[in-house]
Structures are given as C-alpha cells and as structure tokens.
Amino acid sequence: MSDPLLKETLAAKDVAAYLKRHPHFLGDYPELAAQLTLPREHGSVASLAVYQSQQLREKNAELEQRLAELVAIAAENERLMQRVHELNVAVLRAATPAIAARSVVTRLGEDFHIEHVHLLLFGNAYGLPPAEWLAVEPRGRAGMPEFSDFLANHEPVTGRLSAERLYRLFGEQAPQVQSAAVTPLGELGLFALGSTSADHFQPGSGTLFLKMIAATLTAALQRSRDIA
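Given the sequence above, the corresponding structure tokens read:
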C-alpha cells in the first residue's frame, strides 16, 4: 500500500517545480493568487505584492549590511597598509641592520599593538647587538627540529603553538603567549609575533602584511651579511 503522505509530498514538490518553471502562472490566474496564504515569520500576509515587497526590503537590508562590513574591512586594510608602508620606510632609512631590526620591533609594538616580537636567527646575529627580542641558534635549521615541517613549507603559520615551539621562539616569555604568528626570514631565521590573546592570531588568518614586513627585514639582514 502506498503512503498518502508521500504522494502529497511528491505532489507538492511537483507543483513547486512547475511554478518555478512558470513564474507568470499566477498572473494568468489572479483569483488563485488572492486565495493563497503567504508565510511570514510573525503571522501571514494576504497580498502577494506585499509579501514580495517585504522580501525585497529584507534582502536590501542584508546587502546594505554586507556592504557596510566590506567597507569597514577595506578601511582597516588601508590603515594596516599605511602602517606597513611607514615601517618599511623606517627600515630603509636605517643606517645599520641593528637600527632596522629595532625599528621593526618597536613599531610592531607601538603601531600594531603586538606584545611579543622575537627574532631567532640561524648561525649568527648578523651584526645585531644582544637584545631580549633576539636569539641565535648556532646550528641553524638543524637545531630547530620542532620547526622542521614549518621550515620545509616556507610559509607563515598562525594560531596556537605547542609549548615546546613557544619556548624556542619566546623563551621565558612563552607562558604569556596564547597565540602566535611565525614566518621564515628566507634562510636567515624565524620572525615570531606573540599575543596574550588566544584569538589574536587564528589559523587561516591572512598573512600578507606579515610577509611584507618579513621580506623587508630579511633584505636588511642580507645587506649586513653581504657587507660582511
């Protein structure tokens, strides 16, 4: 025996499909449109024109909200680009790699509100004086087994890192870091940013600005190496 409810469901789908293929159907049968009960979140409306008008207003409101969100994102990206530009100019004006590196660390803290900025260089310090934000791994990549997969990909990583990785990057400040962004400095080392907020750096976050800053810093360090 067939299920009457199944038949009714299939029939309703057939009617809906037919109306989609013939959007002017109700124009040919206005008396049918007058008898339809149209759904609303809070009750029902009797007029198809009113229903369509309300639907359009709601859709326009959604589009306007989305547009406002996109405009806000664009404005924030413009501000970030301006800060990155100013940082790059400061690095280019630096007379020495030490001044360039210090400019990056200082501006990231002041302009980007990054609490922890660290450089971990491979082999030597490339003329940089000792600083709390600087560490050197004499063995280079071989001394960084915790980052072997990361170094092989040559791409930044963002989000929450393991305690072992955090300690290698931030030393005694590691317990304060709840999220981080790390990018390679070519073959010279690692550049790490840390935040006390677990939501500041999230997996999958855009890394364009981070790459731009890292490229400028890498160029300054390479200049020091070439001069030496």
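Residues 122 and 141 are 7 Å apart (CA to CA). Try to locate this feature in the token string yourself.
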